Amino acid sequence: MPDDAPATGADAAPRNAASIHPGARIGHVHLKVADLDRALAFWRDVVGLEVQQRMGDRAVFLSAGGYHHHVALNTWESAGGSPPPQGTTGLYHVALLYPDRQALAAALRRVLDAGIELEGASDHGVSEALYLRDPDGNGVELYRDRDRAEWPRDAGGGLSMHTRRLDVRALLAEAPAP
Fold first, then answer.
1. pLDDT at 13 (0 to 100)
2. Among 28, 43, 102, 152, whose CB has the most other CB atoms within 10 angstroms?
3. Pairing, β 71-74 against β 29-32
4. Selection from 48, 149, 44, 29 nearest residue 104 by Cα
5. Which pLDDT does position 139 carry in this prediction?
6. Which of 47, 56, 9, 61 minimizes the C-alpha distance to 133?
7. 3-state secondary structure of 2
8. What is the pLDDT of residue 177?
9. Which of 91, 164, 159 is closest to 129 using CA atoms?
10. What is the pTM of this model?
């Protein structure tokens, strides 16, 4: 079964009339930013998303693979603004799923080459994840899923995710040569 296929069998939770269709996905995230060019330099030049459309100095729409947009940035209500203070509600992080470990390693190389500090790096059993912040303080997770057959299970067959330290040096060793 492909990694992006809907869960079935032991992987699926019981569905009820209020359940969302199993083929539904998160389509995009739209972030308020203080400085469009600064945010664009991160999301395009470090993360590697491609600009699909720009609306002057007010908004830009970015994606991977030519999709209309996975991440949108705007200054409509936030030009010159500051990040929300600690201890308030809001977005925890945006998570970008990479297709394989080598692609995640290449993303790690770009992050480190840009001088951006990682806030964390975790092995969750089901995935490997890197955590950092964009220039506006938004949490960003860059990750790759393991094949479903490798996901840790408890004795009853349910998921048994965990958080362990990810070996960042071993991941970086898998990055393609620059």
1. 57
2. 43
3. parallel
4. 48
5. 95
6. 47
7. coil
8. 85
9. 164
10. 0.86
pLDDT at 1: 36
The pLDDT assigned to 73 comes to: 97
C-beta of residue 37 within 8 angstroms of C-beta of residue 79: no
> If you compute the radius of gyration of the chain from its CA atoms, what whole number of angstroms results?
18
- Predicted confidence at residue 15, as pLDDT, reads 63
- In three-state secondary structure terms, 110 is helix
The encoded tokens of residue 56 equal 């002057």
Domains identified in the chain and CATH numbers = 26-79 (3.10.180.10), 92-178 (3.10.180.10)
Contacts of residue 76, defined as CB under 8 A and 6 or more positions apart, other chains included, come to 32, 58, 59
Which residues does residue 127 pair with via DSSP β-bridges, in sequence order? Answer: 145
Stated as kind and residue range, the H or E segment containing 130 is strand 127-133
Q: What is the pLDDT of residue 8?
A: 45
Retrieve residue 163's tokens: 């958080």
Below-70 pLDDT ranges, the chain: 1-15
* Residue linked to tokens 């040096």: 169
Distance from the Cα of residue 98 to its chain's centroid? 8
Contact between 48 and 104 (Cβ < 8 Å): no
